[in-house]
């Protein structure tokens, strides 16, 4: 997408605005499937927590993707978007047995990540095809909040608990059809990934009825020019070879599954916001935008650094700015960042705004959530309207006047 297209969309739909480039999502999907083309049975389950707009789900469905979900509400959205239950995986963490049973009743593949629920589910539902999330205890991931496979992590069943796990499976006659791991996001070193994969292969030998191995995700995408990214082609070459060899050893062509979020949608997304005020202080120049961490929380939550361009003045002389939001707390998107000269009213474009941006947005400070637009075949399609005052009131129930008066 060109800066001009983005500027025109900001004029047409207003700001703040999320824009997603359909072509980029398609090309990322193709890159991944091509990298693993030597694996006879490959399946991509899009981790919809990254961006769950129904139009995006439909787009990925039409590319052939399945879905990775973490809540029954995500499952329902996936079904609503036209995915058949067999195309949906459910990988929750710390949810109730009741929710897992409800999802199972919808015909969706469940993935269990703790021994307590495994035992309870197995005792009530023997023979149901179940996947198990293993924690391989590998330290991966670019940030403490997204490193989920290490020894202190709450995710998965420790690989050291395999004997206990196998005993539960045998005692309850469970049918384990898959095993899964997800070590964290932003994996830089593919050797770490391959090391964790070996642990999964080893664990797999304990189960005789497997149909698939799910390697989770964690592919690092670039955030700026020359940034490091997971080398998908190299990973594809090495892991495909090892996976195919394992299938021969296991005596069956298993399906290899990935569940990427960021890799598919991060770079396809742009967040557009208007500069409300340029404020010079004794130490810095702030560009204050018509948004805040209520719309894009990743810089405050993870310290993520989104590349910011002034698309109203792309060729302007560069100066240093701190870009901040309007929330009544520290609300910083970027500090001391070199950006083409900013005037009040200019539109700033934040890159890598496809994954974990809108989906983490909130109404904090009683602000409306922004609209979302899908850019396809040279045209912008509104896929979520900007919120209105009625949206803030929806589901709120005022106290009856006579009760309120009794306080
Ligand atoms: C179990 C699981 N699978 C897949 C993903 C997607 O990861 P990413 O967006 O890094 O591809 C996550 C992210 O949190 C996850 O927890």
UniProtKB/TrEMBL annotation:
Descriptive protein name: Diaminopimelate decarboxylase
Function field: Specifically catalyzes the decarboxylation of meso-diaminopimelate (meso-DAP) to L-lysine.
Active site: 328
Cleavable signal peptide: none
Family label: Belongs to the Orn/Lys/Arg decarboxylase class-II family. LysA subfamily.
Assembly behavior: Homodimer.
EC numbers for this chain: 4.1.1.20
Positions annotated to bind substrate: 298, 302, 329, 356
Catalysis: reaction(s): meso-2,6-diaminopimelate + H(+) = L-lysine + CO2
Record organism: Flavobacterium gilvum
UniProt pathway annotation: Amino-acid biosynthesis; L-lysine biosynthesis via DAP pathway; L-lysine from DL-2,6-diaminopimelate: step 1/1
Cited Gene3D superfamilies: Alanine racemase, Lyase, Ornithine Decarboxylase, Chain A, domain 1
Classification via NCBIfam families: lysA
InterPro entries: Ala_racemase/Decarboxylase_C, DAP_deCOOHase_LysA, De-COase2_C, De-COase2_N, De-COase2_pyr-phos_BS, Orn/DAP/Arg_de-COase, PLP-binding_barrel
Keywords from the UniProt entry: Amino-acid biosynthesis, Decarboxylase, Lyase, Lysine biosynthesis, Pyridoxal phosphate
Alphabetized GO MF terms: diaminopimelate decarboxylase activity; pyridoxal phosphate binding
Cofactor: pyridoxal 5'-phosphate
Binding site for pyridoxal 5'-phosphate: 218, 356
Top EC class of this enzyme: lyase
Domain of life: Bacteria
Listed GO biological process terms: lysine biosynthetic process via diaminopimelate
Ranges where the Orn/DAP/Arg decarboxylase 2 C-terminal domain occurs: 18-354
Residues bearing the modification N6-(pyridoxal phosphate)lysine: 49
Residues annotated as domain Orn/DAP/Arg decarboxylase 2 N-terminal: 24-266
């Amino acid at each position: 997408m060109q800066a001009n297209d983005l500027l025109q969309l900001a004029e047409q739909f207003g700001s703040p605005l999320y824009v997603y480039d359909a072509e980029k999502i398609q090309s990322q999907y193709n890159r991944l499937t091509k990298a693993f083309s030597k694996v006879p049975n490959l399946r991509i389950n899009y981790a919809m927590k990254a961006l769950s707009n129904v139009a995006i789900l439909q787009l990925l469905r039409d590319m052939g993707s399945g879905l990775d979900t973490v809540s029954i509400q995500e499952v329902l959205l996936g079904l609503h978007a036209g995915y058949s239950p067999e195309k949906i995986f459910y990988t929750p963490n710390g949810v109730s047995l009741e929710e897992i049973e409800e999802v199972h009743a919808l015909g969706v593949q469940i993935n269990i990540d703790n021994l307590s629920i495994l035992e309870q589910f197995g005792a009530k539902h023997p023979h149901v095809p179940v996947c198990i999330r293993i924690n391989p205890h590998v330290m991966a991931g670019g940030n403490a909040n997204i490193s989920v496979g290490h020894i202190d992590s709450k995710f998965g069943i420790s690989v050291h608990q395999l004997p206990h796990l196998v005993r539960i499976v045998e005692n309850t006659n469970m049918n384990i059809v898959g095993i899964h791991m997800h070590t964290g996001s932003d994996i830089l070193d593919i050797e770490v990934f391959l090391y964790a994969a070996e642990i999964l292969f080893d664990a797999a030998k304990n189960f005789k009825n497997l149909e698939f191995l799910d390697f989770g995700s964690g592919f690092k995408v670039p955030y700026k020019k020359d940034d490091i990214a997971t080398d998908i082609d190299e990973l594809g070459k090495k892991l495909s070879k090892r996976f195919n060899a394992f299938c021969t050893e296991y005596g069956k062509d298993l399906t290899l599954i990935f569940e990427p979020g960021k890799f598919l949608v991060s770079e396809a997304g742009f967040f557009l916001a208007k500069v409300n005020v340029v404020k010079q202080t004794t130490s810095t120049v702030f560009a204050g935008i018509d948004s805040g961490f209520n719309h894009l929380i990743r810089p405050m939550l993870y310290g993520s650094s989104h590349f910011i361009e002034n698309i109203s003045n792309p060729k302007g002389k560069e100066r240093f700015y701190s870009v901040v939001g309007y929330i009544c707390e520290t609300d910083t998107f970027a500090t001391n960042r070199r950006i083409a000269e900013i005037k009040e009213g200019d539109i700033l474009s934040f890159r890598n705004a496809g994954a974990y941006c809108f989906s983490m947005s909130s109404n904090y400070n009683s602000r409306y959530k922004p609209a979302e637009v899908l850019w396809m075949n040279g045209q912008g399609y509104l896929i979520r309207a900007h919120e209105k005052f009625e949206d803030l009131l929806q589901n709120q129930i005022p106290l009856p006047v006579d009760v309120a008066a009794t306080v």
